[in-house]
Amino acid sequence: MAPESLAGFPTPVVVLWIVAATGWGAVLAGLHAGLPEGTRGPAVFAHVLTAPTALLVPSLVGYGALPLTVGVAAVWWSLTLTTGFRPRRLVATGGWGRLALFLVVAALGMTAGTHLIL
Questions:
Q1: Any idea which UniProt keywords this protein has (predicted)?
Q2: pLDDT tens for residues 60-83?
Q3: By Cβ atoms counted within 10 A, which residue in 19, 42, 45, 74 is the most buried?
Q4: Cα–Cα distance between 88 and 35 in angstroms, integer?
């Protein structure tokens, strides 16, 4: 049996944070390895800003941290899965089909994650 809470946080929330952090890292590794030198710096910088922004915006608004975490985890993992851990593929090859698959997988991930967590 899994514990009901870990250090006061519900276990599903801790698992969600771990899934989101590993998805963020997977996208970062894909950006770092798969982009040419000229575009790598700005893309990695923009991606690095998403994690603090995902924490800052809900704290400024006053609500929405958990749904936003579910959303970014679903988007990061759908990006890595639909592009084969190479985010550049989303716009470079595959065209509309790959983009549509990315959006469908992200929507399914957000729906499933929301039902599991909330």
A1: Membrane, Transmembrane, Transmembrane helix
A2: 998 889 999 999 999 999 999 998
A3: 74
A4: 7
